[in-house]
């Protein structure tokens, strides 16, 4: 959650702060759940690639009702600030040990649902980003096959691409129903969507493994993309538009009600709900504070200037040498003419 002008006018960004969600992505899971009811009667849930924890917050809010014995396990390589009631594992989703730890926390039982909002650090090279996201989904499915019970649910973020149909068809081999969901809070200009797989029913003889490096075409034998149940837009279509920039001076937080004059306050910037506990760029920030980058930049600039100076001096020396050679040649030529 940054501080750019676009972010300040992003209604879901602002509502996330006002309602203490760690990221605007919380609304995506809530809108999918409102449409499909995927969290109904769930008592064991797993959140993969969970940091900073907005989806775990939604799970905690919707599962931990009075009298409920629900358990939520959140997994990420990065540490995450605590969330009441959520069991956090700092681990690798491609490790069998991580899957075993999940089962242990569920007292030997398997999960009712596995969700994954993870995405790679995008490069801007669309084909590469789409491939990396597909591989991440594969890793998420691999661990899901270890920890998800029969008839369970799997939800994961995908990047829509020309090969998406193959992914849908492959998932259909393991789940009876597959939907592609696009929450209202997901920007329409983004290729982001969510593949929702219902009723986990692996083929007879299927053995879960972490070693599968890619879903092959044979995994979708006899299954084509036309078996996908449909593309579903989630959320109130008359509600907030994730692409629109709303003015900061109006009562945008009160869509349908009458607002008192004292509520019509100008938007004020609010700090993030939960800053990263140990971000990958932490060392770089410390170096920036200490002026290390400035010193490195100054040294590089100094070295560059020195290199340019040496280059000029070398060119000047070469030009003088060439002039000297030309002068000697002219004198020799003149001497030959006199003779």
Automatic annotation (TrEMBL):
The active site is at 157 (proton acceptor). Transmembrane segments: none annotated. Residues 305-339 are annotated as: Disordered. One of its GO terms (cellular component) is cytoplasm. The keyword tRNA processing applies. Its EC number is 2.1.1.205. Residues 314-339 have a biased composition (Basic and acidic residues). One of its GO terms (molecular function) is tRNA (guanosine(34)-2'-O)-methyltransferase activity. Its main location: cytoplasm. Methylates the 2'-O-ribose of nucleotides at positions 32 and 34 of the tRNA anticodon loop of substrate tRNAs. Belongs to the class I-like SAM-binding methyltransferase superfamily. RNA methyltransferase RlmE family. TRM7 subfamily. This is Putative tRNA (cytidine(32)/guanosine(34)-2'-O)-methyltransferase. It comes from Caenorhabditis tropicalis.
